Amino acid sequence: MKRQRQVAAAFSQNEIDELARQWQRELKIMDWQIGVRIVRGKRLGGDDGGVNFEEKRREAFIMLLDPRDVAKDRMTPYDMEVTLVHELLHCALACFTGKVLGGHEDITQEQQIHTMSQTLVRLRRAGLPTAEAAA
Prior knowledge:
Strand order of the largest sheet: 2-4-3
Largest sheet: 3 strands, mixed
Structural class: alpha/beta
Number of strands: 5
CATH class: Alpha Beta
Helix content: 25-40%
Radius of gyration: 15 Å
Oligomer: single chain
């Protein structure tokens, strides 16, 4: 039997741009200039996404894995929105970023951002009111 790519949620570039604006409002980081692009897997080196940011200038560039490049042997399905929120949370929490890549602070932050991004997207999809709706 041929293995299917495990993709839970995939979006077009236009849909991702709109989701990024919505999540920036939700996470209260509208003062950041953030570009988001769907890129081929070789640019991400096996990761689902990545972000390069300059905290002082409040600028960031997020890359999301193109669903065509999702590995067939993944343990969990790829969800572009969860990955987008994950990378946006890195911007929101930039001042807390660990100084040593792979150090205790870095790993702990990565684990917590992963959990928060999954939870936020799950709650939104469940129809819970957003900060925008409450305002």
